[in-house]
Amino acid sequence: MLTINPPRIEAVSAINHQQDLIKVMGDKATSSDLAEALASNTKIIATTIHKFAQINKSDWMTAGPTADKNFAILIDEAHSSTTGSYMSAVSQVLTETDVADGSIDEVQEVSTGDVIEQEIARTGKQDNVSIIAFTATPKATTLQLFGTTTEDGIGKEPFDVYSMKQAIEEGFILDVLNNYVTYETYYKLNKSIEADPEFKSTIAKRRIAKFVELSDENIRGKVEIIMDHFVTHDIMAELGGNGKAMIVTSGREAAVKYQQAFKRYMKEHHITSIEAIIAFSGKVDLDNQEFTEAGMNGFSEESLKDKFDSEQYQVLIVANKYQTGFDQPKLVAMYVDKKLRDVAAVQTLSRLNRIVKGYNKKTFILDFKNSYDDINKSFAPYYRKTVLSETISPADILELERKIDSYEILDSDIVHEFNNFLYQPKRNSRDKQKMTALLNQGYARVQRFDEKEQLNIKKDIRSFIRMYTFLIQATAYQNEVLHEKYNYLQSLVKMIDVRLGNDDFTIADKIVVDYMRHKQTGEFHVAEMPAEYQIKLNKPSISDISEDQEKKLSEIIEEINEQLELDIDGTVGVTGAIAVRELMKKNQKLKQSAQVNSRDDFKFTFNDEIDTALTDGYAQNQDFFQVLLNNDDFKKRVAQVFVDDVYRSLKEKV
Question: For the whole model, what pTM was predicted?
Answer without folding.
Answer: 0.62
